[in-house]
Amino acid sequence: QEDTEASLYDRLGGLAPITVVVSDFIDILLVDDVINANPAVNKARERVPAPYLKYRVTSLVCQATGGPCEYKGRSMYEAHAHLDITEAEWDHMVMLFTELLDEHGVPDQETQELLAIIGSTKGEIVTAEGGS
Ligand code: HEM
Hints:
Keywords: Heme, Iron, Metal-binding, Signal, Transport. Heme binds at residue 80. One of its GO terms (molecular function) is heme binding. 66% of the residues lie in helices and 0% in strands. The chain is mainly α. The chain has one domain: Globin-like. The chain binds protoporphyrin IX containing FE. The site of protoporphyrin IX containing FE has 20 residues, from helix 4, helix 5, helix 6 and helix 7.
């Protein structure tokens, strides 16, 4: 990446479009049957307010894309270890995210960069041992 290239944050249009995509994405995950089949995730859904999650995920994405936010939440491992997230649930989440970016008209280059950022967290988030 050249120094002169705009940050991913700027190319996505800044905080307003990022908040919309994050909000839509969390709304989709909260009612998704595959994700909610995980009992620990389903339970967390009742305990953790959606607006809180949207705020935290937005500040993380804003920071990771080069925006002016500072993520102050837990590490990805601390936030997800108790959820026993499987590889299959992860793959399903990535599929839903990719579809959503397409619906919002996010171009291919920016989509690939966002998927790379998400992908870099997989090792901390997918902690389930077996299939389930
Ligand atoms: C299948 C994939 C995922 C599922 C099912 C999932 C689900 C959840 C749930 C249920 C919580 C609340 C946990 C609790 O407080 O008990 C949470 C927190 C969070 N997740 Fe995820 N997550 C996934 C992937 C991701 C990814 C890819 C990111 C960002 C790259 C992310 C960012 C966060 C953040 C920032 C929090 C809040 C941390 C805090 O409270 O300090 N999650 N997630």
